[in-house]
């Protein structure tokens, strides 16, 4: 995965906004082409055999194509630069696209559940696929698992939530195909009723993944607090700056490609104001090298006065640095 990523990004950082767009377009393009081919073959086998589970699996694969199109649109819209109406950019469009993907999953799963329930009451099958078709389905399942690993790797490392959602869509498709293969093999021994049962199992799996993504995307849109890893990274960066005694009240407001970061640093209260300003500026520059397109606010507080105030009630002023980073 790392080798492929390095070739595509040509030396760029994986968290660079331009890198996110490149990986998003590649993931969506690969997914659309492969899903169209796979869904066509599955539909053909489904109509050939009359298997509702196989038709449902084909529909699920086809829905993967739609979700990849949503990813494509989401990546494109989220890369629109900030404007007067949206000073923090349009990065949250990516989460809206994840929400759309999740809703498609829920709708697909619900439709499959209803169809499978009807099939249980009147199980039937026209023809059982030959061994060659079973191996084709197995190959497709392995291919979708590889797509999951690629999409998840890019989504996790580049922090693209829509790719993570699309990745789980690939994995549910791979799992669904394995269940269908199992059902088709068992039908050789007249366990025809399993067709509808497996369809229901697949539908529940699809719906669960959809709801999980809905909860995750909604939480981000509502302003979920920054993840622990980012907070630790910022803390480590700040303590690399000479003169910083303590850091606290770190807050991260995530807007997708854009982050609004604020923090308080404690400095020696006896140093000149211009020296305190320079330290704060150094903190901002340090964070900027890791978090691209961020608005960073650094508040400075006197460390020694803070300690003395516990016994003497002495307070101190603070300096506010508010710089928009492009």
Q: How would the blueprint of this fold be written?
A:
Elements: H1 2-9, H2 17-49, H3 52-78, H4 93-121, H5 131-158, H6 161-186, H7 194-221, H8 228-239, E1 246-254, E2 259-267, H9 273-288, E3 294-302, H10 303-312, E4 319-324
Strand content: 5-15%
Quaternary state reads single chain
Structural class: alpha+beta
How far apart are the termini?
30 Å
What does this structure look like?
The protein is built from ten helices and four strands; from the N terminus they run ααααααααββαβαβ. The chain is elongated, with a radius of gyration of 26 Å. Helix 4 runs antiparallel to helix 7 (about 195-220) and helix 5 (about 130-160) runs antiparallel to helix 6 (about 160-185). The protein has a four-stranded mixed β-sheet with strand order 1-2-3-4. The chain has about 325 residues and is an alpha+beta fold. The protein has helices at about 1-10, 15-50, 50-80, 95-120, 130-160, 160-185, 195-220, 230-240, 275-290, 305-310; strands spanning about 245-255, 260-265, 295-300, 320-325.
Concise synopsis of the structure shown:
The chain is α+β, with helices and mostly antiparallel strands and 326 residues long. The chain contains 10 helices and 4 strands, in the order ααααααααββαβαβ. Helix content is 67%, strand content 10%.
Q: What are its keywords?
A:
326 residues; alpha+beta; disordered C terminus; 4 strands; elongated; four-stranded mixed β-sheet
């Amino acid at each position: 995965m790392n080798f492929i990523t390095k070739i595509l990004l040509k030396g760029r950082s994986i968290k660079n906004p331009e890198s996110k767009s490149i990986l998003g377009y590649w993931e969506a393009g690969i997914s659309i082409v492969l899903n169209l081919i796979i869904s066509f073959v599955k539909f053909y086998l489904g109509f050939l055999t009359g298997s509702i589970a196989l038709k449902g699996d084909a529909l699920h694969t086809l829905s993967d194509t739609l979700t990849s199109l949503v990813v494509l649109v989401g990546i494109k819209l989220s890369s629109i630069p900030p404007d007067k109406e949206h000073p923090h950019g349009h990065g949250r469009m990516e989460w809206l696209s994840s929400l759309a993907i999740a809703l498609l999953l829920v709708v697909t799963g619900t439709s499959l559940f209803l169809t499978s329930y009807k099939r249980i009451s009147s199980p039937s099958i026209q023809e059982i696929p030959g061994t060659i078709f079973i191996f084709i389905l197995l190959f497709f399942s392995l291919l979708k698992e590889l797509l999951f690993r690629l999409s998840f790797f890019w989504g996790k490392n580049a922090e693209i939530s829509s790719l993570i959602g699309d990745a789980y869509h690939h994995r549910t498709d791979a799992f669904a195909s394995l269940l269908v293969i199992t059902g088709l093999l068992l039908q050789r021994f007249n366990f025809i009723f399993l067709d509808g049962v497996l369809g229901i199992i697949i539908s529940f799996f699809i719906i669960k993944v959809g709801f999980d993504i809905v909860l995750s995307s909604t939480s981000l849109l509502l302003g979920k607090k920054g993840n622990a890893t980012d907070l630790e990274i910022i803390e480590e960066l700040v303590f690399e700056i000479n003169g910083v005694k303590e850091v606290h009240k770190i807050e991260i407001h995530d807007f997708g490609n854009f982050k609004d970061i604020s923090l308080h640093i404690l400095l020696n209260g006896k140093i000149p104001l211009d020296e305190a300003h320079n330290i704060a500026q150094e903190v901002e520059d340090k964070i900027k090298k890791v978090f691209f397109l961020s608005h960073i606010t650094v508040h400075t507080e006197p460390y020694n006065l803070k300690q003395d105030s516990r016994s003497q009630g002495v307070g101190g002023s603070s300096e506010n640095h508010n710089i928009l980073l492009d």
